User: Fold these one by one.
Assistant:
Number 1:
Amino acid sequence: MDTGFVAVPACAVCGEPSSARVELIAPRQLPAEWQEWTARDREHFLGRRDQAQWWLPFAGVDAGNGGGDAVSLSGYGRCPRGHGKSLDPHWSPDY
């Protein structure tokens, strides 16, 4: 079975856990804090999630993506504002 993980980076200044949080949820798994979610948030998550995909929710000081977004197998990543870029280090538009 695939396993996800949660990362809570430390503050660069004081070393304490920051308010940022990133989670990678494996296919057919639930978020680590599932028991703390409201019934409405759970329903929304289950209603829009493709259970066969990895899911990546994140939260930061300024922004986050709520219940997460599907992780694309295409090697193409998007920022919260929708800007995209290939994540393949060997790809270039010049070739």
Note: Helices lie at 39-48.
Number 2:
Amino acid sequence: MKYYVSKTHLSLNATGRLSARETVLTKPDTLTAAKSALRRYRALGIEDLHLCEHPVNSRRWGALDRASNKVRKTRKLTLADVAADLAELDKLEELKMAARAAIAEQEGS
């Protein structure tokens, strides 16, 4: 028998209804490996974790993995997104250069 670690996400929508979804965090593995992964995730402070059995020929893990990928991948990255990120990086670089110049000026005087 193999086991995997999953997390349950709970939230309230705009109308006040409870909504839940489950995402898998590990691939099916031995009980020892799954328990140690569960211990590490709990040590990181992640809540709502579960140790789940993965019987032979079970399709639950694959279905959960595909469903979590659909939620995570909302849209493709566009050229406009990249341009905005590059502009932000250029702005940060200018701020760093100004800070270095100010420090050099203070050390020089």
Note: The first strand starts at residue 2 and ends at 12.
